[in-house]
């Protein structure tokens, strides 16, 4: 049980604990990355206490996920929307900025950003005012739960994200309007080779790289040359426009945020996962994940947010 001690703070909520873990499985290279930026390390000059947490589940290679994990939080702090306090607007803009950097790399350095990509599940918290902004692309998710002060059990468990899948009617219509198509292969609806409709990277399915049709005789290098000189003739089959939600964290509540890849969400019920994490979080997140519950290919971490008093066991 938690006990209050020490000192109160002027912030609406306090970041109590963060833990994470991942497993590579049988893959030769790690393709998944996560970023933890505590208030003392957030790259912005401000009196507010700001924190940033993100999970990037890569596919094709780890290039896009690693690139985003190193840069996206810094890009966020530089956005004019961020300086105005429009964190949701800044989040949307910064994902487009990240794709812009990947496009420049594709044009001048490597074709890899066209052939690989990443999901994104991002939590930004202004602890001083108690504001939480969550954005996601793809099938990585953020779960929020509260802790009952009487029973110490989790309740009000809900996902703050949406899965971006090609078969969703709105997504399928968007893809067709952009000039793309959704095909079912081995029972799975796909945009090209992807079973997701919104990601970072995957530039072969985005304008202007998809100006050269994927079923032509063109190579990725051909597409790089065309995209550098041609006007777009297609929209984005795969989008970088995130699902974003905002909510206020109340000072008298205890919260648990869990950020997970599909390797976790496809194998574990949200409620069971939250109960497990809330019970064992302080025993070490990596040990909890790798040895007690979850499959060998996944990425996961948790964030504990408390009332504005310092707590300890």
Automatic annotation (TrEMBL):
Its cofactor is Mn(2+). PROSITE patterns: PPM_1, PPM_2. Signal peptide: none annotated. InterPro entries: PP2C (IPR015655), PP2C_BS (IPR000222), PPM-type-like_dom_sf (IPR036457), PPM-type_phosphatase-like_dom (IPR001932). Residues 17-313 form the PPM-type phosphatase domain. SUPFAM superfamilies: PP2C-like. Pfam families: PP2C (PF00481). SMART domains: PP2Cc. GO terms for molecular function: metal ion binding; protein serine/threonine phosphatase activity. Residues 165-177 have a biased composition (Basic and acidic residues). The keyword Manganese applies. Residues 165-192, 208-244 are annotated as: Disordered. Keywords: Hydrolase, Magnesium, Manganese, Membrane, Metal-binding, Protein phosphatase, Transmembrane, Transmembrane helix. Its EC number is 3.1.3.16. The chain crosses the membrane at residues 288-311. It is an enzyme of class 3 (hydrolase). Belongs to the PP2C family. This is protein-serine/threonine phosphatase.
